[in-house]
Amino acid sequence: MQKSIAIISILWLWTSCVMAVEVNNIRMWAAPDNTRLVFDLTAKIHHTVFILENPDRVVVNLENVHFNPILLKHLRYKKTVLKNIRYGKDNQHTRLVLDLNQTVRPKSFLLLPNKSHIYYRLVIDLYKQGGKKVIRKTYTDAKQYRSKDIIVAIDAGHGGEDPGAIGKGKIKEKNVVLKIAKLVAKRINSEKGMQAILIRKGDYYIRLRDRNALARKYNADIFVSIHADAFRDWRARGSSVFILSRKGASSETARWLAQKENNSDMAGGFNLDDKSDFLRETLLDLSMTASIKTSNDVASRVLNGLKKIGKVHKNHVERAGFVVLKSPDIPALLVETGFISNPSEARKLNTSYYQNKLAYAIFKGIKEYFRKYPPLGTYFAQLRHQQHIVVSGDTLLKIARKYQVSLTALRKANNIKGDMLRVGKVLHIPVAR
Ligand SMILES: [Zn+2]
Prior knowledge:
The protein has 433 residues and is an alpha/beta fold. The chain has eleven helices and 17 strands. The longest helix is centred in the last third of the chain and has 33 residues, at 277-309. The relative contact order is 0.10. Zinc ion binds next to loops.
């Protein structure tokens, strides 16, 4: 009798040791509207998360894990909703108390191992209360919102826990594309009549649908997602530009028709709430068709720019059903700047020289389109009807530079052969291409 109890308890000890899941690492990501905590685990675990008030704190219970509190030492709380994490242990439970600097809404879920993560991951998202307001404030760039500008939403793919593709020398897609996105934004913001909205500004993840929603919130005229993905064949190289596929477009229209709550916040101002089903479908179809036409035109211009700076993967604009491209009301394109899986391309993508070139090609394609087809009421629309009255000291070259048009176009628009200009002559300024 005595003996069997001993055996049972040894067995129990042994299984509990073997069964204990190891917490290998903890990471923390600060996004404008939430803080994400990620635990790397050697297997699945049971956990509970709940809130306690006065003072505000979140309690995380991890069942049957082996947790080394030293993991908490390297965490930095700056910009997060946390002040501190305390650790405690009883029997099978590891208890972490997250001390907060504001009230949050926690959400937790478990992720399975994948290509870029070998561990199971427990993710705890702590959403700031009234998070939407925070997003708006953070994303407006502290710059005054100018309604006459062309608003370009620039989306650096991946971020935070999602590194995207990883190339030789541990070059991560999420970092490369954020740098390129910032360079595109810089170019756009230094262009009169254009304003950039960076969808992601730092190293944190934003859900795909939320990326579109942010663009919509800022009445973006166009959405550009920037990536640098991997392919199983490391030799694959070159950039590509994608727009939404027909199949993706029709499934998205159906989704919008089914999800009535979306209908009141479409950009472009038309409200679908009070329309009949037939009219809603027609309006959505029209909007989607127009968006795709614009997307295709912008994408072709961007692709032409990319052809000038390096190899392109395909010679034409490609079509795919990527979620970030799915907006019936905002034209959208996705630029694959290159393959990070190709060692020489990864090296190139990691240089600021090449990042600048890519950024310029993207910027130029967008600008060219909107200079040619400016939305009503924008500064670019005003430019279409510009005239210039020649004053003393003017030269054709000076005027061409001022309005950013080519000398040839200026000559042609005004039927001028030589270089002579008469003071007081009214010149027609052509639309820049
Ligand atoms: Zn990507």
